[in-house]
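#structure-requests
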Amino acid sequence: SLVFRPKFIISGFNHTFGAAKQGTPSFLRANQSKYNYVYKETDAVKMDGEIISSSLIRSKLEIGDVIGANKMLGYEFSISGEVIKGNQLGRTIGFPTANIHYPDEKVKIPYGVYSSVVTVENERYSGILNYGIKPTFNNECKPVAEVHIIGFNKDIYGADIKISISDKIRDEKKFASLDELKQQIQRDIKRC
């Protein structure tokens, strides 16, 4: 049988492991001689007075603080997927969108409109992402991720795309008319 005998172990200052998370940095430090390994504990990394952690990054994304989360990540939070057919209402008002399923395993951002960068076939384009239930169009049952790729007009159904989310522009809201929605989308695009 395979026996794991590490010679060197590195963990974060608050790392836990094992049953009921009883394995801690103190445990690893105390057992170096017994199990013949060297242990190194990494210090907390702070940004803007906060200790960077996956929990903090998730909580920032969950409240829509994409800029704060991205700063801590060191890259832009992104979602990826295959472009699927939506209800094609965006194209009828002059703003066609590429729709993807928001991956179940990803942190859910609040419903809203986000500036983004969309990677299609290794090319990057500015985009405006709407994630939500599209209340102006009689509400979707399940949230939809749809991105208008600015200046892009190719058929990419079935293609895999990556949407890197830069900033939250505004909350999703219901508009009284399609004209009001179109005007808002134009303002959102200018902001992106």
